Amino acid sequence: MTFSRFELFSPERLDEAVALLKEKEGNTFIMAGGTDLLIKRRHQIIHPQTIVSLKNISGLNRISFNRKKGLTIGATALLGDVARHRTILKIYPAVAKAAGNTANVQIRNMGTVVGNLCNASPAADNAPTLLAMNAELSIIGPQGSRVLPLEDFFTGPGSTALQPAEIVTSVFVATPPSGSGATYLHLSARGRIDCSAASTGVSLMLKGSRVDNARIFIGACGPTPLRMPKTEKKLISRKVTKAIAEQAGLQASKESKPISDVRANEDYRSKMVAVLVKRAILEAYQLARTNK
Amino acid sequence: MKHEITLKVNGDAYSLAIDPWRTLNEVLREDLNLTGTKLGCGSGDCGACTVIVDGRSISSCLTLAVEMDRKEIMTIEGLAPSGEKLHPIQESFVEKGAIQCGFCTPGMELSAYNLLSHNPRPSEIEIRESLSGNLCRCTGYTKIVEAIADSADKMKPKPQRRKRRK
Q1: A47-62: pLDDT as tens digits
Q2: What range defines the domain where residue A14 resides?
Q3: For a disulfide at A56, which of A10, A120, A143, A243, Cβ 3.0-4.6 Å?
Q4: Does B3 sit within 8 Å of A193, measured CB to CB?
């Protein structure tokens, strides 16, 4: 077996990284944890000639929280650190749960939340919750910096709205207001080592005991994580009961576009979307009711 | 172009000139002759290549050696540095019959080491979750879980205030 041989650059500043990406054209890849990139190389899906590692850029692994604004997770912050972070566990439990449900212990000690997003797998564990919570990405590139809603980021399996030589530097989630609740649920055939066969992130915002705003996404059931607008509509201005959550789950099942693959067949996925969405809605509603 | 790196493995310092595409697993096994670290799937699923870097378990098959510059690494050889007296985790694996073919054992024991160094009194669930990145095709895991629980008892940390656990 021959794998591609590549040059590796580990710049210490972001502008150097952008300059390198601009200068080295073709088969140049950005690496954070490397847990997806190096597997793709090994499976000869990609043949990198140049890899630009972000790990030596200081401050990029920072996780910071400002109560008035929100949570910022840097591009090289590890999945394991996000999953264990006290503030995230307390204020963003669904974000911590999604990070803690990604892959296994070793991979979580290497891989990053932002890397999981940038790899743009439709099954990315961290995508549905962050989408439901209306996260934004900070991006830097040759034209300067920009902020992009995560909802506009995924363009297909493995492809994103990133322009050449652009780097995602962090993901931001605003502080959840009182009366809101978010949750992540997923299912995989063989526990932790396997990619999700279906997943959902649900975020509800209540006015009194009625749903004022809902954002519902499902993963691994379409070319990108998918938003479920008709499902959301079923909840608006309603008090969530088991029956309503069940109807919403069935609607989500209709809205999803699953395929059959090695992890699950289409029929099973459709059925599981209904179950996961129902449970996630009930859980998020319960959290929102108690989040004063 | 080779990169010059210095790293510590099991307390020994090394200076190496390494091609950027070589993995930590290759360098440990081929350059440093530390063949206790295995290569299984090569894609981070099986855990046979597990080593400890700066106190945390990682998959050496998905780690570029060059990125280990100035890091401290522990391999299975470092668990019983004298080569004679076994580490309590290893003793328990022997006593509980947690080894059959042995290929997964170095990774299993380092995952156990990683768990016990962060959580000295794990529940059975926590032990099982800590092995989510280690596959064994022989034992069915039961004996391995028993061995780790047994070694936690042996390694009993000094009494201290109980940490709150979720």
Answers
A1: 999 999 999 999 999 9
A2: 7-53
A3: A10
A4: no
